[in-house]
Hints:
Strand order of the largest sheet: 8-1-10-19-18-17-16-15-14-11-12-13
CATH architecture of the largest domain: 3-Layer(aba) Sandwich
Low-confidence stretches: none
Largest sheet: 12 strands, mixed
Number of helices: 15
CATH topology of the largest domain: UDP-N-acetylmuramoyl-L-alanine:D-glutamate ligase
Radius of gyration: 25 Å
Shape: elongated
CATH class of the largest domain: Alpha Beta
Structural class: alpha/beta
Amino acid sequence: MQSPDQILTARQMREAEDRLIEAGTGVDALMQRAGRGAAQWVWRLSGGHAVTVLAGPGNNGGDGYVIAQAILERGGKVAVVAAKAPATDAARAARALYTGPVLGPDDALPRGEVFVDCLFGSGLSRPLESPHVDLLQRLAASHRKAIAIDLPSGVATDSGLVLNEGLLDYRLTLALGAWKFAHFLMPACARMGALRLVPIGVEPVREAAQRIARPTISGPSAHVHKYTRGLLAVVGGAMPGAAILASTAAQGAGAGYVKLFAESKRNCPPDLVVETGPVSELLADHRNAAVLIGPGLGRDAAAREKLAVALADPVPLVLDADALVLLGPRLLAERTAPLIATPHEGELVALERAFDCGEGATRVERARALARASGMVVVAKGPDTVIAGPDGRLACAPRASAWLSTAGTGDVLAGAIASRAATGCDPFAAACQGVWLHGEAARLCPPAFTASQLAQALPAALAACL
């Protein structure tokens, strides 16, 4: 049974296709599945208007011939521009079955509604040649919409790097068989438009990364109370607003009881419990299900003391913001309970330095290396959020609203993740659920929303999971 959320490297995808072939599905049959599945989306986006397919020499070009033939069979108008002659047996077979017009790169190029990029797909490792870039740009300019098949041409599959200047922005990208890392990693993912998966029968791959999809979350049963739903302790600091914001977010993400440890109750909402005593009292409450520290913590001696106290609590701990800057291997020497870290790019660099794990070549490699070195679940947050567990698990988040690029939204994310951890979720699952809820809340908000509005949208995001 195909796994709709697995993310495969170029090598894993080749091996998965090889297994399908060994099991009796021929290359030609796989190409027909992929191309005809993609053609359904192309037809829908074209609205029956003219389609132009740019076919490369490999199997991605073969998919293009299949798409074009499927459009013809539906009664559509289609033309293929062959950048080069087919160079694989499967591509040549697909070309032989195509009964429509084929143009060369030097012919007068057609105009139409939809341009379909089948020049190069997965596995590209070097920049496109200049004539190919020029051909892509000219075809895109003469069509209203552009669709990429599997991946946009000129994108590195496993890293998300863009290998050429001046590549296109697409309305839609159709992943064939499985998601690839480039579908979720910057800068490539910003160019891909909407993402859709075309299944071809690829079986689940052991230890594959996962796309973060909408979780299934159970509502509280009839016999529970606020403590059994999860008590989350939030440790405030020098800048109380951030901790209040994180606490408000946590209240809307499922925890039954959120308690803020702060120096003052000023500006706190009336339904948030605030303790103004010493933070050492945090450890005295055996009912704690999880702890969050970092938003607004500060970086002075008092902040360091609070961090040490929080690390001594034997429950899952979410570390954000200033707590990440103060963190080092020696502080974790006695720690055995789970840790979740939520660094942005600058904090990720600081943690890499602190744990001496060095920067990897890709965002995925960096998150994995830090998770292994520190023993934490690492939520490398940003426009291409990656979650890595110390046990090797890996997940990537779909692109979320760019309006999240405003102050305070990271505090909301920390609160959402900590809330899910307090409900008893496995730490990796809590991170994934919190990231999904955060993205869904952003989708539900109006443009130019504030962090407070984002936090207020979390209950509606949670409702979508019940």
